[in-house]
């Protein structure tokens, strides 16, 4: 059954109510036409519950806007959803990525994530290019997708909105990695399903790193908002030497700050019985939040990003294939994912909008049933980066 406006309906009953489902839910193609966003193809999803989100086809099919009943969930930075033609990957010493950084989700990868560094490229057997200079968080987030389809799919009396596209990151004498992304939401629900598959289409043995930068802003983020996660221990804090100086811990968020320096944690998480890790940001005043659920086997590492500076106010949930130590450390520790021709990695994630106090309470109970997170604002980082096994 399709649940619309607090009523369960069959497909026939939905068809009788209007000329099409589009009066209540649907997915349609749009194009932005002004400023730095001009020319970006975009898909708009409406699930019928008040959930609306947009997908930037020309930005790796990342999720840009996200709102529920007019209440914003995804973060909007000052950069806007900048057209990829304006992006300079190697600009500003590798920090040019920050000029294209906005939206609910920005994908990082496909062969590099985290900060800038230089790595050997001996696997590509090309003498003029002995090393690669990697910029912040890799290339994929500003590569346009080839849109392979979108629309409605009915399964009996259930209806699913979907879109699928292919993003290719490739170079001569280097990587040829393909990201196939599928996004689905069932009509009448608040669950966005994201299925990614990264495949090596080339014939060189190729490194693969992957991370989602999931960014939440006002009004989900405001003074008193809470970060909930099944945290066993804090592994690392970028600001450990000045841990309490700004007075902002990992659990409870303040109002926008002046002269705030970003804070990043890596937490060691515990998965539930199904091997899943749920992480949420919740606003108790509004009864609003977002829970991100990933699989521990796919994303064994989790980061928490805080950019609480006034005018850029955001918090990030970041599931990652690798530790915060970076590209060279992953190689040195034997934890890099190496893909031979035709090999792939799959990532299955779910974004759930928590639309009232009951949904927030249910999410919190689900997380607490796994493990109670540290109840102090500044738990001491252990510095223990557990080995990541099972990598090809």
TrEMBL record:
Superkingdom, natural source: Bacteria
Cross-referenced Pfam families: DUF4432
Any one GO MF annotation of this record: carbohydrate binding
CDD domains the record matches: Aldose_epim_Ec_c4013 (cd09023)
The protein, known as: DUF4432 domain-containing protein
